[in-house]
Amino acid sequence: MIFIVVVTVYLTLLVGISVYKSFGVKTQDDFMVAGRGVPAYLLVATLVCTWIGSGSLFGTAGLSFRSGFSELWFSMGAWIGILVIYFVAARVRKISQYTLTDLLEKRYSQAARILGTIAIIVAYMVIAGYQFKGGGRFIAILTEGSVSPETGMLITCIFIVLFTMLAGMVSIVSIDVFNGSIMIIAMVLTLPFAISAHGGWDAVVTTIESKNPHYLSMVEGHSVWWVFGIILPTFLLLLSESSMYQKFSSAKDENSARRAVMGMFTGVVFVEFLMCAIAVVGYAIYSNDPRFFLSDGAIDRAMAEEVILRIGYEQLPGLLGAILFAAGSAIIISTGNTFLMVTSTNVTRDFFQTFIYKDATSKQIVLIQRACIVVIGLLAYLLMSQFKTILEMALISYTMIGASLAPVLLASFFWKRVTRAGGVASIASGMATVLFIAIVNKVLEAQEGTTELFGVIPFPMNTDYIAIPAVLVSVSTLVIVSLLTPPDPESVWGPFMERKESITKA
Hints:
Layout: H1 2-22, H2 28-33, H3 40-51, H4 54-67, H5 72-95, H6 100-107, H7 110-142, H8 149-167, H9 169-197, H10 201-211, H11 224-239, H12 242-248, H13 254-285, H14 301-304, H15 307-314, H16 318-356, H17 362-383, H18 390-414, H19 420-447, E1 451-453, E2 457-459, H20 467-484, H21 490-493, H22 500-505
Antiparallel strand pairs: 1-2
Helix pairs in contact: 1-9, 1-16, 3-9, 3-12, 3-13, 3-16, 4-7, 4-13, 4-18, 5-11, 5-13, 6-7, 7-8, 7-16, 7-17, 7-18, 7-19, 8-16, 8-17, 9-13, 9-16, 10-13, 11-18, 15-16, 16-17, 18-19, 18-20, 19-20
């Protein structure tokens, strides 16, 4: 009962804040980028909460349960990406566009903007959708199965859609300081109690080594290709994460944007390491629990993704477990509303405002975006039947965004020679490669068949490796087409390049 009470009280607090903030939403800037006045500390909180979503609470936990500390390679891709973002955050805020696709049009063309919008809509609907799926599992555990995961998923969808509609980006950045705080407190307290529940660290190590001697190592038992394949999706997504760019545009100034990136790095590394460690301890706790294993002894991937919440519900003292569940609700909601917000912003600006309602007032744009949030939320909900696990959904959506947009974004800020034609071709080829692999995988899985492309690439392709061919195609296309087409004038690439005076200033 205490679990339900604590989670309900916490969610009521968040709704109250969001309702209060909704009265201050007057303009398009207020709704989309929080009036461009967000200080660094709030920006840090919302950036951390955006990244730590159901993909971490369930997907990262499940991968850690299966792979041990080698899961940190998956998380490390994002950590490296954050450090790269540090060098462009101030320039993004200086350019002060609304969305990532605004940047694509400014550097490349409207065609790049449209392709980028399509990639973001498809991938972000999947990401928003697996917040709903995670919420369904969350509610099922919280109610001890009284509410099914399917019903819980619908409840989560409705809640997140309504929550996002209230005040847009203003509500998101306002509540994320609370979400970030409770998230860190819960993870810090959970790890030692989880270790104690199994009899101490020595007992954890002994159990794990008896089951899987490679489990506590980051490198043993895995090939270089696995490491490379598992790093790429998070690295590329972080570099092309549209909500990050939208939130940089919300910053009070350029220095606030840059300071927020380093705060985000610290917060994300800390929380993701704790999550990995908790899941590893969970492997020891549940190593003989038949719920976590299939009849052939293999790990049940879907059940493994619930390990952190299972620890909270079954192994921790009541109040601490309830706090962990409140953190879980914060993780799901903060990421779900952010991705609905970003997707709806792109649809509103790149479709309705560009082609249909060119002369719409600021208030009309806010109304259109709220309607888009409802439609996108419904479509995201309907997509969920196509995937078995949250990690599978995460890897495909991460790669869709990363392979399509990360190369052209990096080139915008670091390579003067990239051309408009090269950027458009790169986005299109990255999208096409991911869609091709995903479709072929689904067809072969439905037919229970296998094949080899060019006699060497096995299909269905393991989603752990899907980023490698997608990135190779996208980057090769970018370079080749750019070198074969005339260079763009300085007026196009100049605003994206770091200048000596701005370095000194920073």
